[in-house]
Structures are given as C-alpha cells and as structure tokens.
DNA sequence: GGCCGGACGTTATACGTAACACCAGGCGGC
DNA sequence: GCCGCCTGGTGTTACGTATAACGTCCGGCC
C-alpha cells in the first residue's frame, strides 16, 4: 500500500498549518507501535518498556509537537476529567474567586474546570448548560435557585452544590459558608455599638444563601429584645440599593442609625443614598456590608464587612466532586466567616 | 495520586436506569438503524427519511432521554464547536463582560465558549491552557503580553487577539478598542477644564493596551504645548494606586491639579490618596478613570471615566473567530469609545 | 535439554458518532 | 422491456486513543 507520508522524523513541525500529529505519527517516528506510545506517554510503562525506547518515544513526541486528541481520549475512557462550574454571574468578584479555588484543586488532580455563567440559574431542562456544550464528568453549582437545581439534577451527573440549602433530604452534597453566623456577627457588632434602629437592605434574590441572611438578622435582633429590622429589597445593584437606602432613611418614624446590607455592592449604594440625604458615615449612620470585595476597601470610608473565603469554598467544592467521582461520599462542609470591622460603622449617635 | 477513579462515567447511575443511552439504543427503540437516528437528529433527513420514521426516532430519543456523546461527535467531526477565551483575570469586571458578548454570538451559531483565566498571560508552552484541558477549535485571547502570545501561537489553532497590537506584521487578526483615542478624549477634557499640571497614574502591566495609553496622553499634552505628565506606576490595585497618588501629590514642585488614571480601579485608589492628604475631589484635585466599571458609579463623587464596550468587543471577537474557522478572512476591527463626564472632574483651582 | 518466567513489545479491539456508498422497490418514459 | 430516477432507508467505515490479550526473545534452573 502506498505511503504518501514524507515526514520521516526529519525535524520539528510545530503549528505549520497541516493536520495535527497523532500518536500513530509519533509511533512511526520512534519506530515503535502506537500502543507503546500510549503506554509511555500515559506513564504506564514501568517494567513494560525499556528506558531507551521510552526516551525515544518522548523525543519523537517532542519533535512532532504531539498533543493528544482530548476528544478521542474522552471517548475511550468514558470520562473527560473536566468539571463544570455553574455560577449565577461572573461580574460578581466572589464567583471569580470561587473559580480560582476550584481550578487549583482540579489542576492538582489532572482535572479541568469549565465555567458556565448562567444569568437565571440555568437554562431549560432540555439543555441546561446552553453555551457550555462541552463533555463533562460532573457539576459544581453555586447559589442556584430551587427550580434551577431540578434542571441540573436531570443531567444525571454527579453534582455538588455551593451556598445552597444543606437540609434537603436526599439532596446533593453541599459546601456552604456559615452565612447565618456571619450575619449574626454583623448584627451583634451593630448592637454592641449601641444601635437600636437597624434597617436591613436585602437582595431581592430567591436563593438559600440570601434567604438565611434575613432569618439570621431577625433572630439575633429578637434575642436582644428588638423588633425585626425594617427590610428593604433591592436588586443586587448600586443604584437600586441607593434608592432602598433613601427609602429606609426617610420612612416615617425615627430614622435608623444603621444600614445592615446583605452584600458589599448594596452597601456601596447605601452609602450613596445616605450621603445624598446629607448624612455622614459613620457619624450619622453606620453601614455594613458582606463579602469583602475589593470594592469595600476602595470606598471611603472603608467598609465594615464580612470576609468570605471564596477560594476556599471553591477548593472544597472541587474536592467534594472528586470524591463523588471516585465513588466516595462527600460529607457536607461549612466554612466559618470572620467579621472585618472597618471605618463605616461607629457608635450610634445619641438622641 | 488517586488512580482508580477512571470509571467515573461508566458506573450505573440510579436515576437514569443504567448507562447513558446511545444513538444505537434509540435506533433499537425506534426500529431503525443507527444511521437513520443520526440523520434525523442531525436535521439532515429532508428527502431521505419519511416524516413518520423521523417522528418515531424523535419520540424514542425523547423517551430514553438521549443526549449525544459530545466526545464521540468531536472525534468524528474533527471539530468541537467550542472556543476558548483566554483572559488575564476574571475578577476584573471588564473580562466578564467580554465573555458575555462572546457567548452571545457563539450561542447563536451553535458554538460554546470556555473560559481560561490565566493569571500571568498563559502558562508554559508545553500546555498553554493549564486547567482548561478541553478540546477546542480556536482561541480568543484578550490583553496578552507578548511572550504569552508566542505560547498560544504554538498551539497551531486559529487565533483572534483582543486589545492587542494590531500592527504586528503577519500577526493574528485583532479586535481592539480605540484606547488611544479614549485617552486623548480624557486628556482634552482635563485640558479644557484648565488643568495644566496633570499626573498620570498608570498600570505597571506590560501589555499593548496599557502601553498605548501613556503614548496617547503624552502626545496630547505635547500638542497643547505641555511637558509629559509625571507618570507613576502602580499595580492594578487600589492600595498601590493610593500610594502612587500620594507620591504624585506630594512630589517636589507645584502640586498636580488632576490625576489621570488608566483604569477605574486605579482611580478609586487615587481618590483615597487625595482624601488622605485632606484634598477635596473635585474642588482641589480632579480624578479621571477608564473602564466605567460598576465601581465608578459607586464611588463618591461618581467617577469621570471612559465607557468601554466590553460586550461588543466580545461579540466582534467571536465573530472574527467564526470567520477564521470558516476559512474567511477576519479584517481588523477598532471600536470607538465615549467619554462619560461625571462629578470627579471640575475646573482647575485658580492659583 | 526442556521448561519457566521476566523483560519488552505488538496486535487487535472498542468507545459513539457522522457520513459515504450502496440497495430495494416503485413508477414513469420511450 | 429496459433504463433512469426518486423515495426511504441500511451496512460499513473511520476518527485517535487506551488497554486487554497475546507473542517473542533469552537467561537461568532443575
């Protein structure tokens, strides 16, 4: 049979526009069979291939610029060694940091991570992961609404949930932040400064992680013998939060002396609202955030907030998914949070 | 190193009733051959399969919950219909918005987009895309340093560069923002307000998009008969920018009346620095940014800045890559920028 | 000398899909 | 009566990889 193959291992041919070399090309160049190439490059050759042959294979692979065809490998193995990370929004710094943590652990185990930013949870059940049409082995989903969860479950893939209700019976393994405790810390911090009229600027987002925040604040106020904080909903957006703050500060009755915000972005808006009314922060009104975004130390005054270990939750999430893929159980995790007191909160004004 | 976890996808999954159905299972259920299933589900059956048979196939596929094996499809087609978007950092809102634009166009063409956030451009040449080990058809790379570009080029994949030097002979197609013009607009804005002593807070990042900013500012000042602005380098970081601003404002000689910043993040730091010195913005010193991040309207006063059409550059980038993949040329693109004057700049103080 | 077994490789196969080449029957034209 | 053509499919193959099953040489031991 005629062999039009001209390249007899003469020299490197990187990215010359031709087709990519396969393991068979490497085999030909090294004078061995394709199986041997696979063994050597897959590091499974101890005691089955001589040192000299292995070296020859590696040299040939290097010369040709061989890179394995990942689609073929995935097909053969029935696994892609890739995880999908579903997040509600990428523009929120928190999720970018979660990704970084997940990628770190994945990398250490030879796994990849692919991101799918889903504006509204996830898409229709038929094709939950719209534009991320990549073959994946498992899913890590962060801060998903309940109906979105159902759509993901349909995929039949191993699943780990981040920042989601851990008490669903038969639900997927969860990795959570101690969000409730974090907001208790904030509330106690404000109470400790003498504040008795606290307005709560909450995000109008129907996810577990935001729902528990309100419960925690209310419970902590009740424990101190105070009524629930007036709660103002707002989109997770500076302008909406500004309006909510203005509404809270101009509502009938005695003016709140503190604005407890569920997110740093809301806190930034709250600061603008307070200033628009001529109030000074923190002398006239204290403002607290939640997240410790870069934004929070860019503001003036710097924001009292709660630091979220975003990278850590990403690491734990990936670790849990790897456990699932290996057939091991993934016990639930809850990570502690720490209050970061800064300049935007101070003692309540007298009067 | 966990070895025996390779059979992750092949184990029987309780919810799905065994292993995932293949096109052959669908064929069996519908009483046709696998080839017919492929034709029907691939929408290539017009005039080759009867309406009735096609319907039967679709019903069977739906009943079984069939989803094509993407690895097998990619192997067969030699293409993955997936693009890789390489960005320097995800925590910067700009890149998240670029992604959104790229994903929009990709989706409309049945393509997927996978993100690879590369802390330092890209990784070593051997495996440029570290944790994003997914089979891809092409690359869109944004704001890459020169050496990183070389590593990407080695991949031999179609490549589109965003925010990169368009004048490299034989270089890849580029999609750019008119960054130089944007900074000229800012400079003229400040000159028009009477500022004659402008300090330039620049990012210490060796990429084209930041290099041209300094050139543009210097050229525009020279055109007005002014010496180059004292330039202070800073990491792309609030604290570093704060220090740079303090240094600029306390340097020997007459104090600058304006701080021209290459990025909104730098501007946020500059504001903090100015305030730390007891200066009011904009009465004592004007501050301008660049990007129009959400941050810029969260600051107080709101930042004069330049709006970047991030989604648009993502859309154009993906469009260019699709052209390349179709064998068509991708002419260079340059998108115009618009100045957004807000409250952080005002007339230069007299004296 | 025959036989065993380690060292060193090779041959063959399957993964699931898409598409090319073929084929059976019916029908109209000449 | 034969050809050509249209309709509605089917058999088969190849994509590139990983690995199970199978050889082959050769030194050593009873």
Automatic annotation (TrEMBL), chains A, B:
Residues 1-30 are annotated as: Disordered. It holds the Pfam family LacI. Keywords: DNA-binding, Transcription, Transcription regulation. Residues 21-77 form the HTH lacI-type domain. It comes from the Bacteria. One of its GO terms (molecular function) is DNA-binding transcription factor activity. This is Transcriptional regulator, LacI family. It comes from Actinacidiphila paucisporea.
